[in-house]
Structures are given as structure tokens and as C-alpha cells.
Amino acid sequence: MASEHIPAIDARFRLAYPGFSLDVDIKLPGRGVSALFGPSGSGKTTLLRCLAGLERTPDGYLALGGEIWQQGPAFVPTHRRPLGYVFQEASLFPHLSVRRNLEYGLRRIADGARRVSLDSAIELLGIGHLLERIPDRLSGGERQRVAIARALAVSPRILLMDEPLAALDLARKQEILPYLERLHDELEIPLVYVSHSPDEVARLADYMVLMEGGKAVASGPIHEMLTRLDLPLAHGDEAGVVIDTTVGEHDEIYHLTRLDFAGGGISVARQPYALEHHVRLRIPARDISLALERHGDSSILNVLPASVVEIADETPAHVMVRLDAGGVPLLARITRKSSALLGLKPGMAIFAQVKSVALLS
After folding, report:
1. What sign for the dihedral angle of Cα 342, 344, 350, 354?
2. Residues 158-179: pLDDT tens digits?
3. CB under 8 Å, gap of 24 or more: what pairs does 217-220 form?
4. Is 2 inside any structural domain?
5. pTM of the model
6. Residue 272, helix vs strand vs coil
7. Nearest alpha carbon to residue 52 among 14, 104, 9, 110
8. What is the DSSP letter of 157?
9. Residue 193 sits in which domain range?
């Protein structure tokens, strides 16, 4: 998980182009995946390029773990920054084998400075069987996995990824996402991930920076960002929460698995994971109903005790309710009439009935 208290990246950039300006001041955690999220044209890629030194701003500041890479005009060029960069397109050398593509950047790194071995990068991305192929004989997902392994092979202190799944179809995205999850779980370095896909961010990110109009309008742990009713992320039919759980029990009689978290437990269809395996869930706000009492005569298995934190207008017919379930935030999108009939108000004890969940990992 990300360390929320030790900023690995302290960055301030101001950059102006005709019709667009970037003005950001952010601090990102020291481990895990930080997502730069927002619509096209919001400044996500420009910010990533500033972090890489590919965009040079006269008024900028960038420190990584206390090491200053830019302070005003003083500037460490990209080739001297220990970073890995993965573009939307894999951009492999077409005339070189996978092995030689991976070895290309090793000359930059002294043996004693290598934090990620080439063998480790190959194993982490599952590309050992591809080493003698040339890029033309790889699928899109395989090429991108090689590109990520190549970025890791230079032993970066930070890994930057610019919408690495944007050029892939759905099948190839599903192929590569488990490998990105392995990076999340196993890398000791921070990963900054640009995306405009809510599903990718929900599945991978620990921390989120919401970009809009060249500004970082909000940032924080993803669990908090998705439930902030002052942000658009917590509104609309696709609003929902992300919960990190562990496998607590398998019910072999009814073929269910219980996933535990601080606020209780969620039962889902039997999963193949071992006990204590980490599983991330997404619970849509539209799939939570509320009740004043726990009902034993309902088909809904997952009922969580909670308290009302905040209520916000959603549409003329709906409200969004932010809940606290044992320290874990939840969202419920219910009708305005239901809210009135229940007499909902902040601080009120309630039961959240979870109709469905999506397993993200």
C-alpha cells in the first residue's frame, strides 16, 4: 500500500501554451500507485512529462525523496533522472529481439546501482517465453508488457506510465491488468499512472490527483476521493466506493467466500484465493439500499451497520448519502422520497444493504 505520510514527490509546475496552461502543486506518496485522473485535455500527460523532464518550465520545483531534480532554472535533464517512462504505444525497437530491447538501457546503470534486476523484471511481467521474438510477432498486450519490463530494467526510482492501456482492446487490457496489479503489490518505488478510465483507477490506484483545466483540483487516498460529495467522482450513476479486503473464510456448503475489512464482511461467490489473500472490491452507490433495522427476511446477504455522514442533492429525484461503516466510507444513491421516509440525517445509525459488488482483483 502507499505510504500517505512520506511524500516521494514534491512538485510545483507552471507552464503556459496558447490555449492551455498548467498550474499544479502536488505531493505524492512514497509507494504504491498515484493516478493522475481527469478528462482529455485536463493536463495529465503534460504534468507527467514535467515530472520526467520532457517539458521544461522556467518556474518549477521537483524533489524525489529529498533529491532535487528541478528548482527554478536549475534542472536535471531527463537522461540523468533515474526514472522509467511507459508511453501509450510500446515504442520497442522493431529490429531488436525482446531480450535486446530489454538489455538496451542496462548500459546506463552501474551494477552497484541496480535496484531491479533484469531477471526480476522479466519474471514480474511474465515475458520469459517471449525473449527471442521480435516486436512484430507480439500481441499489443505483450508489447506493452515488454515496454514496462524495459522501463523497470533501468532500475528507476520512480515509474511513470502514460495511459499504457489506451491503445489496447478490451481483451488485451484484461490480459495486462493482472501484471499491473503485480507492480502495485511488489514494487518498492512509486508509480505515477495517467488515465481517464474510472475502472483502471479503481482497480490500481492508492492515491488520486483529480485534474481539470490544467490544475490539480483535489488529491488524496482513492477511498476518500471517491466519496467526497464536493467532487464529481461521487455523483452520477457510476459513483461508488473501492474497498480493500482480505479473504476471511470459504463456505463450502453454500459456495461463498467472505471478504473481511474494517467495517465488517462481504460474502461473494466462492473465490479461488487462499485465506488472507488481498482482494479489492468496488461497490456501486446505486447497489446500496438503506434500512432502519436489520431484516432477517431479505434475500440480501450483505448488510453492514453504518452511520450517516452527509447527504447531498443528486437529481430532482435522488440524493447521495455518504456513510461510515466502521471507518470505511460507503455511498448510497437513493430516492429523495426514501430519504424523507427514513428521516435520514447526519449521525443517524443505519443499515447498508449491499445488493452487488464487483471484484477488481
Report:
1. positive
2. 999 999 998 888 888 888 998 8
3. 219/26
4. no
5. 0.89
6. coil
7. 9
8. S
9. 7-225
